[in-house]
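Contributing new complexes? Match this layout with iron/sulfur cluster.
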Amino acid sequence: MSKILKNIHSDLAFTNNLINWGKSFGRKNLPWNPSYGKKIDPYKVWLSEIMLQQTQFRTGVKYFERFIKHFPNVKNLAESEIETVLSFWSGLGYYARAKNMHKAAKIICSGGKVNFPKSASDWKKLPGIGFSTAAAISAFTVNEKQPIMDANVIRIVARQHKLIERIGSAKLQKKIFIICSKHLPKSNSDMPIYTQSIMDLGALICRPKEPLCDLCPVSECCLSFLEGKVGNYPVKKKKVFKNIKRVSWIIPHTQDSIALVQSKDSKLWENFWIPIEIQENNLIPKKACFLKRFKLPISNFIFDISVWGILCKRKNFEGGVRWFKNSNLNEKPIPSSVKKAISFL
Ligand code: SF4
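Output block (do not edit by hand):
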């Protein structure tokens, strides 16, 4: 009985301390938060949640502001060409996020009316929206009580409770879900501040490296801190050795333009413009000039890329290429690693 009471006490202390801390020290004036007296915009919250996945906060904010300027509402996004959307995502990586947002925007705007989902379970039905993202959006927009379980939360909870299961394992997810469900505030109206505070705690205090435990509002119930073992948690994934793929990129170019082809690879850069890719060295054209070699880690592979240029007098080159003016490249959907290769010309 006393153990149960102790647990309830520490769950309550965690939630209250976290919310109080968030009110005073959490991040304010985020560009997706409404200005005083204005209603929260589900489109901005949704975009911020998607953009900040696997992206550093500062970079995410910069891209968010640029994106919102061009696509100020979900209707603009739904009515835009995917190529334009991708050009505003170029450099952020994980392009499936942009493609899924575009598809989801079309669903939200289908039938001539804008219909945002009203619950986490409905958000989850849209392409590219997982459990935690749906929970965060509905916590911010309709105060729904759903626990978020992003990387920040997983780190905090694993350290608080000294969880020994590895990151990414189903066992860890299950435990975190149970613990996070108990941490939810009593009142629905506290859901936005609670959700923002736990995100902020992970980003500002319980950081992946060098957490600031002395400033932490929930250190009194943190088992790994109390035992001086913070560095042991969360338990990392087993190291996976990546396969190396060797490819050559051929870039025909003139003084002021370059030629690229549109990628058909649905898993990687579909619809993006990339160099002509050649797997066999003996197929590299004789007139190609070797420029540089670089490595590019993507999911379970490391691409070992050799970049070759072919200087052309005129803009004619076989192989289904399209020519782009160098001065317009930033407006086109071109991955940042391709821009890096172009810079070697
Ligand atoms: S005490 Fe340290 S390890 Fe524990 S939650 Fe706070 S910052 Fe994270």
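Reviewers usually confirm one structural detail per submission. For this one: The mean pLDDT is 92.
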